[in-house]
Amino acid sequence: MIDGYIVTQMPDNFETEVSPARSARGRPRDAVKNSAIIDAASDMFLELGFDGTSMDGVAKRAGVSKQTVYSHFSSKEQLFGDAIHAAIAAYYPDRALAAVENHTLEADLRAVCYQLATLLMSDRAIAMFRLLVTAAAKSPRLGEIFWQSGPADIQKQLAAFLQTWVEKGALKIADTEKAGEQLVALFKEPAHFKISIGIQPILSAEEIDVCVDDAVASFLKLYRA
User: Fold this and answer.
1) Architecture of domain 92-223
2) What CATH class does 1-87 carry?
3) Helix 76-88 and helix 140-148: axis angle, to 10°?
4) Residue 196 exposed, middle or buried by CB count within 10 Å (0-12, 13-18, 19+)
5) Count of Cβ atoms closer than 10 Å to residue 135 Cβ
6) Crossing angle between the packed helical segments 140-148 and 123-135, to the nearest 10 degrees
7) What is the DSSP string of 98-156?
8) How far are the Cα atoms of 12, 16, 37, 165, 201 from residue 1, in angstroms, in the given order?
9) What is the DSSP string of 145-184?
10) Which long-range contacts link 18-22 to residues 24+ away (Cβ below 8 Å)?
């Protein structure tokens, strides 16, 4: 991953590759218009779903022409991927670690987990999860676009982060990718599932703290060297 940009490799049957840095026709993007389009699209995808969102509708809400939208994004699929990446990028593990002043294993684990838990337990993330579940039967490609637009890189970063502590001798992990998935599950469930089906409200910051503390403690019991 290049900071602020991920190269998204789509299967052969996908229409486009996500490329946030430049427009579909190779011209540099207008940053203000690009941001307005992504913001409008993000809201509309959540409100109307993927099928209910049109490039015309996004243009109207963003206050730009349809031609401008297509000069920035060659397809609705690309726009969806960029909107997901824009929403997730600030929560990447490397961003969380950059804010830690004194790096210890516990401090770094907690920072990474709290950052991701805050993202995953947010109203918008829960709404997107519900949208993807609803659309999965008839539009499975949306799940692949979503995964490649952020979560896949988060998993790679988590594995790399854990590997640094393995190399320091603080953790003993044979498969860091699997351990990263377990770490996410420890702080995410069962709260995320209960919130998604509407039987539990969104967690407060204090409740997220508790989930993270419990997850870190359990993870260290499993993997501390």
Assistant:
1) Orthogonal Bundle (1.10)
2) mainly alpha
3) 40
4) middle
5) 17
6) 140
7) HT-SS--HHHHHHHHHHHHHHHHTSHHHHHHHHHHHHHTTT-HHHHHHHHHTTHHHHHH
8) 21, 18, 23, 20, 34
9) HHHHTTHHHHHHHHHHHHHHHHHTTSB--S-HHHHHHHHH
10) 18/78, 18/81, 18/82, 18/85, 18/145, 18/148, 18/149, 19/78, 20/82, 20/85, 20/86
**1-87 and 92-223 share one fold:** yes
End-to-end CA distance of the chain: 29
- Note down pLDDT in tens along the chain; length 225 residues: 333 333 333 333 333 333 343 444 444 568 899 999 999 999 999 999 898 999 999 999 999 999 999 999 999 999 999 999 999 988 999 999 999 999 999 999 999 999 999 999 999 999 999 988 888 888 888 899 999 998 999 999 999 999 999 999 999 999 999 999 999 999 999 999 999 999 999 999 999 999 999 999 999 999 999
Burial (0-12, 13-18, 19+ Cβ within 10 Å), 33: middle
- Residue 30 · residue 56 · CB < 8 Å: no
Domain coordinates in residue numbering, the chain: 1-87, 92-223
Q: What is the phi/psi pair of residue 3, to 5°?
A: -55, 125
Measured over the CA atoms of residue 115, residue 62, residue 147 and residue 163, the dihedral's sign is negative
